[in-house]
């Protein structure tokens, strides 16, 4: 070929170099990567060679994306190390901080390649590099394209989150940076069409990345990841009015809050309380937005968040609102009874007795004078003998006995406490295993507490009969 002849004969001639450039571009246009790599390798080290390496790296990335869209994942993945190698070689060829935009775009692509390969540290290093890092040089070099700023902040945020979910990372510093980047990302998208939708997509993806790490994290790391997760969920909630997304955010925050509570903790505190406060804010905002169209499921979740936060009156008001139109919602009936019982534990004895009574016998009479909220007693009667409600039945029977005991204790009424003993004995006679080892242990502990309070021998439940041989 003429180009080959020219470059071999006059390697330093400008026309020969131009011919070489044409040959490289033709090879790149045809996806002849090995040919292009060989031609670039024949060039003397310098700005032209580095520029072609960066170009090749970006084209390899583009081709990888196209292959992925065509469901050719294996071929797509195979191009990533090649793209990273060419981009890094081309960028490392810069002897000093760039003053032109093109290397910034190449560095952003390198960061995306590293992120796709699961290397967030390498991605962030590319973005922060003193000679070509677009984060480092932001404001000193013009942006390569109109959407570059938001694209950059999205990749930076992904890299920061990726580091947060690795062992040994400085979670607090990274969380601080993530918060700053989110604000810059929000500013960068401005009032562009579809800006909020794009923000929410980014936040949702990153939130799910963190959520995937939570179950396997040790307790100390889990607490840090939850803090990070909350930041993203709060940002999603403030960036969208889409009901399904907002309900997912609220439910996720509430699940995290509940799982962060101690085993015997009734009212959330610390991190759990902060998560539940965010859940409540999200649910309340969505309820205000939906107005009369607010579904019962949303009210139920908000009521649960109130109960877990110790806002018992608000919780019961919501459960009452639901049950007036849907009295057979068993989960809501159980939550309402539980709210009354837990509320009683925070009150002075003279008020606690009434609250325990409401938990046991129901409350909030409707137009027919019957209690809208059933209480544990009616719950247990209506689900007795129904296999699908087996666990709920034994839970209800346990709370029937406990509420009766606490009514007697707070009112100093031994007769009520004796009735609590009878409640346990009655259900144990019918169902000796009492729903399984864990629930039977609950009954046994309760029985001993009642017996001790009555001044009797605290021997608890009789032992289960030995199985037949």
Q: SSE order in H/E notation?
A: HHHHHHHHHHHHHHHHHEEHHHH
Mean model confidence by pLDDT: 88
- Distance N terminus to C terminus? 94 Å
- Please give the number of β-strands: 2
Helix fraction, binned, reads over 70%
Could you say which overall geometry the principal axes of the C-alpha atoms support? elongated
In which order are the strands of the major sheet placed?
1-2
What class would the helix/strand composition place it in?
A: mainly alpha
- Per DSSP, the total helix count is 21
Strand content: under 5%
Largest sheet: 2 strands, antiparallel
- What are the low-pLDDT stretches, counting only 5+ consecutive residues below 50? none
Radius of gyration: 33 Å
Protein described:
The protein is an all-alpha fold and 469 residues long. The protein has a domain at 343-460. It contains 21 helices and two strands. The protein has helices at residues 2-9, 14-29, 33-41, 47-69, 73-92, 102-116, 120-128, 148-164, 171-189, 195-214, 219-237, 243-259, 270-290, 296-308, 312-325, 330-344, 349-361, 376-383, 390-411, 414-430, 437-453; strands at residues 363-365, 371-373. A two-stranded antiparallel ribbon has the order 1-2. The radius of gyration is 33 Å and the shape is elongated. It starts with a helix and ends in a 16-residue tail after the last helix. The relative contact order is 0.04.
Name the descriptors.
469 residues; elongated; 21 helices; mainly alpha; two-stranded antiparallel ribbon
How do the helices and strands line up, and which of them pair or pack?
Layout: H1 2-9, H2 14-29, H3 33-41, H4 47-69, H5 73-92, H6 102-116, H7 120-128, H8 148-164, H9 171-189, H10 195-214, H11 219-237, H12 243-259, H13 270-290, H14 296-308, H15 312-325, H16 330-344, H17 349-361, E1 363-365, E2 371-373, H18 376-383, H19 390-411, H20 414-430, H21 437-453
Antiparallel strand pairs: 1-2
Helix pairs in contact: 1-2, 2-3, 3-4, 4-5, 4-6, 5-6, 6-7, 6-8, 7-8, 8-9, 8-10, 9-11, 10-11, 11-12, 11-13, 12-13, 12-14, 13-14, 14-15, 14-16, 15-16, 16-17, 17-19, 18-19, 19-20, 19-21, 20-21
């Amino acid at each position: 070929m003429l180009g080959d002849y020219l470059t071999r004969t006059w390697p330093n001639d400008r026309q020969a170099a131009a011919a070489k450039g044409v040959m490289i571009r033709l090879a790149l246009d045809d996806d002849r990567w090995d040919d292009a790599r060989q031609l670039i390798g024949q060039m003397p080290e310098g700005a032209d060679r580095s520029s072609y390496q960066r170009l090749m790296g970006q084209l390899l990335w583009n081709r990888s994306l196209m292959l992925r869209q065509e469901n050719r994942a294996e071929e797509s993945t195979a191009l990533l190390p090649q793209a990273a190698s060419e981009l890094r070689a081309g960028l490392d060829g810069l002897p000093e901080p760039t003053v032109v935009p093109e290397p910034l775009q190449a560095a952003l692509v390198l960061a995306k390649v590293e992120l796709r390969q699961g290397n967030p540290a390498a991605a962030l290093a590319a973005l922060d590099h003193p000679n070509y890092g677009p984060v480092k040089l932001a404001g000193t070099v013009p942006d390569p394209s109109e959407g570059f700023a938001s694209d950059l902040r999205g990749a930076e945020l992904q890299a920061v989150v990726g580091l947060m979910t690795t062992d040994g990372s400085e979670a607090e510093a990274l969380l601080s940076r993530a918060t700053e980047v989110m604000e810059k990302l929000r500013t960068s998208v401005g009032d562009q069409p579809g800006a909020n939708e794009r923000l929410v997509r980014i936040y949702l993806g990153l939130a799910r990345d963190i959520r995937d790490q939570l179950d396997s994290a040790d307790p100390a790391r889990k607490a840090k990841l939850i803090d990070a997760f909350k930041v993203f969920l709060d940002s999603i909630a403030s960036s969208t009015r889409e009901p399904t997304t907002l309900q997912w955010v609220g439910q996720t925050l509430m699940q995290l809050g509940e799982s962060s509570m101690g085993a015997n903790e009734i009212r959330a505190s610390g991190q759990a309380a902060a998560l539940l406060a965010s859940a409540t804010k999200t649910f309340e905002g969505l309820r205000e937005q939906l107005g009369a169209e607010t579904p019962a499921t949303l009210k139920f979740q908000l009521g649960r968040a109130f109960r877990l936060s110790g806002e018992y009156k608000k919780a019961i008001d919501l459960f009452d609102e639901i049950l007036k139109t849907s009295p057979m919602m068993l989960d809501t009936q159980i939550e309402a009874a539980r709210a009354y019982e837990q509320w009683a534990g925070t009150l002075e004895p003279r008020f606690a007795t009434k609250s325990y009574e409401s938990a046991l016998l129901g409350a909030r009479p409707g137009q027919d004078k019957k209690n809208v909220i059933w209480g544990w007693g009616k719950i247990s009667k209506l689900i007795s003998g129904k296999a699908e409600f087996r666990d709920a039945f034994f839970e209800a029977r346990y709370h029937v006995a406990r509420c009766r005991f606490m009514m007697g204790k707070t009112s100093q009424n031994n007769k009520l406490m004796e009735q609590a003993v009878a409640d346990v004995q009655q259900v144990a006679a019918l169902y000796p295993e009492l729903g399984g080892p864990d629930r039977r242990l609950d009954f046994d502990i309760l029985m001993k507490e009642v017996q001790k309070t009555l001044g009797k021998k605290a021997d608890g439940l009789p032992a289960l009969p030995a199985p037949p041989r």
